[in-house]
Amino acid sequence: PVQDLVRRYAASFADRVTTDRHGNVFVVNNPDASLRLMFAGHCDQIGLLVQHIDADGFLYAQTIGGWDPQVLIGQKMLVWSDGGPIAGIIARKPIHLLNDEERKQVVKLKDLWIDIGAKNKDDAAALIKVGDPITMELGFRPMLNNMASATAMDDKCGLWVCLEAARRAAAKGLRCALHAVSTVQEEIGLRGAVTAAYTVDPHVGIAVDVTHATDCPTIDKKSEGDVKLGAGPVVYRGPNMNPVVVERLMRVAEAAQIPVQPAASGRATGTDANTMQIARGGVATGLVSIPNRYMHSPVEMISLDDIDRAADLLAAFALDLKPDDEFIP
Per-residue pLDDT tens for 87-98? Predict the structure, then answer.
């Protein structure tokens, strides 16, 4: 469904929209230009897969992506069956019935089950199969100061930035070929970006993902950096990022008076920038991130101002490129 939304969104401004066998969607403008620029935002989110249906019709699951099982307790879930979404919930024994030792224990995923209201295994299995995907119930909640909370802000907000930046840039005239790609399977190993970057063979690539906002209690700024919601997109420096791309992003941001927050990563990042950088003969890569509180939880929180500014930054970067630009460090 997300990829269908991407295709419909892009139809009004893209010169070409295609989908590969992996599921990546390519939104392309000015495709015949000699310099190729790729924006990558992943469409997938962390979730679960049905692993087992017990005799009483309760579902047990394995994870897709990195979960803290503690955040799953008490959540409304959707099982995506062939016939459509099936409502479920994750709960545990009521506190009244927990003994002293059970109250001290950290819950494990294997001890959690999904209740869909089935009478027994046959009742559940008539609708649901092993391997059906499961997500938290979707929803969008506006917050104060133009903030918003939802599950899967990682990385639906980054995907929106890539597509909206492509739309804004296309309206003003590009000198490069711009490929905005909705990549798949980032959460299980950056897999979509591998195949997408091979297909596009970009000279320059920018991944747009989320990063940890540190402007909330319990997070140490000395080890995680100083990243605030509403202070602008984050531009990373480090070995995963081409220094010429980083300098150009900062210069474009200053010229357009777009506030940005610098950040550092001393290793290959856990984003599509990781695999894009080493695609084929190498890609001059940048990473622009959206500050996100409470990542990989049902209440991920971002600033809508940050994603708007990020879209402006990427559009300005694309419009600044010329066919003879070089990005050799």
Answer: 999 988 888 988
Token pair belonging to 58: 């309760």
The size of the chain, in residues, is: 329
The confidence score (pLDDT) of residue 112 equals: 92
Rounded Cα distance between 65 and 44, Å, is 10
pLDDT at 146: 97
Burial 212-250 (b: 16+ CB within 10 A, else e): bbbeeeeeeeeeebebebbbbbbbbbbebbbebbbebbe
Parallel, antiparallel, or unpaired for β 284-292 and 204-212?
A: parallel
With beta carbons less than 8 A apart as the criterion, state whether 204 and 314 touch. Answer: no
- Torsions phi, psi for 52 (to 5 deg): -160, 140
Total-model pTM: 0.94
Which are the contacts of 193, defined by CB distance < 8 A and separation ≥ 6?
Answer: 40, 42, 181, 183, 186, 207, 272, 274, 275, 276
Nearest to 181 by CA among 8, 1, 10: 10
Active site residues: 186
Q: List the chain residues with pLDDT less than 70.
A: none
